[in-house]
Amino acid sequence: MNDKRMQEMLANLDVENPSEVCPIKDVLATMLDKWTMMIVLVLGKHKVLRFADVKRSVVGISPKMLTKSLRTLERDGHVKRTVYPEVPIRVEYNLTDQGSIFLKKLVDLADWIVPHVPTIVKNREEFIK
């Protein structure tokens, strides 16, 4: 990203106002939530999953938080929820095209993180001293 593009992006980010006033801040807060990122990564890996499968794959998430996160992802257009009229009812979740684009951005971020982990760990250790 060039400096001009970065300055334009930062100009649109109003960190001094609440999320409702700054749409970028609002979307970032939602998308960069740890559960949201884990759900997107799990759905990206498995393509289609039922609720229980997502819960099993996202270690530590409560059913209530998983439901809330999936609803938010569905509301924002990142996840598609498909209900099958069977007995018992079957519900499946998968990423939409928009969700797949977000997944790619998460993978890009992970690509940046991996080579920097040793430095970050070293910095953390030095900070504690």
TrEMBL record:
Instruction: State any single GO MF term.
Output: DNA binding
Q: Which SUPFAM superfamilies match?
A: Winged helix' DNA-binding domain (SSF46785)
**PROSITE patterns the UniProt entry points to:** HTH_HXLR
Q: Which Gene3D superfamilies match?
A: Winged helix-like DNA-binding domain superfamily/Winged helix DNA-binding domain (1.10.10.10)
- Entry keywords, A to Z: DNA-binding, Transcription, Transcription regulation
- DNA-binding in keyword set: yes
- What InterPro entries does this protein map onto? HTH_HxlR, WH-like_DNA-bd_sf, WH_DNA-bd_sf
Record's Pfam families?
Answer: HxlR
Q: Which domain of life is it from?
A: Bacteria
* Domain HTH hxlR-type residue range list: 22-121
Write the protein's name: Transcriptional regulator
